[in-house]
Design brief:
InterPro entries: PPR_rpt (IPR002885), TPR-like_helical_dom_sf (IPR011990). The chain is mainly alpha-helical. It has 15 helices and four strands.
Length: 324
């Protein structure tokens, strides 16, 4: 017998002894003890033993917490078991915990599988678990699946990427789930990396505006001011495009007349994302110039402002014929 197989055998013997101790009336283990044993069975890819330990835990009057359930779910994922008996099936909190954990560790495929298992168990997700999925898929750099999750949150048909991953969307979807700023940031931080998903990114930002997640309207119709302050750069870039698009619509409605300067309020700090290096003001200037061909000026007395002057907008509109 090799040293490795001997070690595994020794571990199994040790865990078997620990399981026997749990049955002893003299031993009073707590939730941490049970969870450690569940995790040990998970390490050995023994989901049945993990689930039995969870059931024993409940029979002994020790209430499993979210981490205990999440550990058991992980054991099932490692061992290829979809779910346990109905009496010990975990709830939404446990599924959310393990999806978040898998996402943070970069195991997005496991997160997708567990998300599908949750839905097949008839458990409708809430915004928190959907945000966890958006984050996990972002770490896996799967823009196709990010779009699918967002579409599902909005109550629309999900993307093919999610379907292919085995998520049973139709049977157990409970209706629209209103996204929040966390949802928006998680989605756009992935999509903005991929030029081919620009239209999807724009659609998601438009959804967010319509749902009041950002801005109550497209822009202040009286002053043409757009507030980007505090936004991560990935969100701000979509916001800039959205504002320019709305500005063009206003110009078209006014038969080519530009009423005001277009003003972006950026603040003086960096973008709100953890990885943002540029100040939001500098990013806005560069993005408008390089991506949209719009020259800007800064107001000296207002440090956190970027302005596209009315005359510049008129020239740009005539040059591109309203094609932003």
């Amino acid at each position: 017998m090799s040293a490795v197989s001997g070690s595994v055998s020794d571990c199994r013997s040790t865990f078997a002894y620990m399981d026997m101790l749990l049955l002893s009336p003299r031993v009073r283990p707590d939730v941490i003890t049970y969870t450690c044993i569940i995790k040990a069975h998970s390490t050995l890819s023994d989901p049945s033993a993990a689930l039995l330990t969870l059931e024993l835990m409940k029979s002994k009057g020790v209430k499993p917490d979210a981490f205990a359930y999440a550990t058991a779910i992980n054991a099932c994922a490692r061992g290829g078991m979809r779910s346990g008996p109905p009496s010990i099936r975990p709830g939404l909190i446990a599924y959310t915990s393990v999806i978040s954990c898998m996402g943070r560790s970069g195991e997005w495929e496991v997160a997708v599988k567990i998300f599908g298992d949750m839905k097949r168990e008839g458990i409708n997700g809430d915004r928190t678990v959907y945000n966890a999925m958006l984050s996990a898929l972002g770490r896996g750099d799967r823009p196709d699946m990010v779009v699918g999750i967002w579409e599902e949150m909005m109550g629309r048909k999900g993307g093919e990427g999610v379907v292919e991953a085995g998520v049973d969307r139709v049977s157990h979807y409970g209706g629209r789930i209103s996204p929040d700023f966390i949802s928006l940031t998680a989605a756009l931080s992935t999509l903005e990396k991929h030029e081919g998903y620009r239209s999807s990114s724009d659609g998601i930002f438009k959804d967010a505006v319509g749902g009041g997640v950002v801005w109550k309207g497209a822009l202040d119709e009286d002053t043409w001011e757009v507030n980007l302050a505090g936004m991560p750069i990935s969100v701000a870039s979509a916001g800039i495009r959205h504002a320019v698009h709305r500005c063009v619509e206003e110009i078209i409605e006014a038969e080519g007349i530009v009423k005001e300067d277009l003003v972006f309020i950026t603040g003086v700090g960096k973008g709100g994302g953890k990885e943002d290096r540029l100040t939001l003001k500098d990013f806005t200037r560069v993005y408008l110039r390089d991506e949209l061909g719009l020259r800007t000026v800064g107001r000296e007395r207002e440090g956190g402002v970027v302005v596209i002057q009315r005359v510049v907008l008129e020239e740009w509109y005539r040059k591109y014929g309203g094609e932003e």
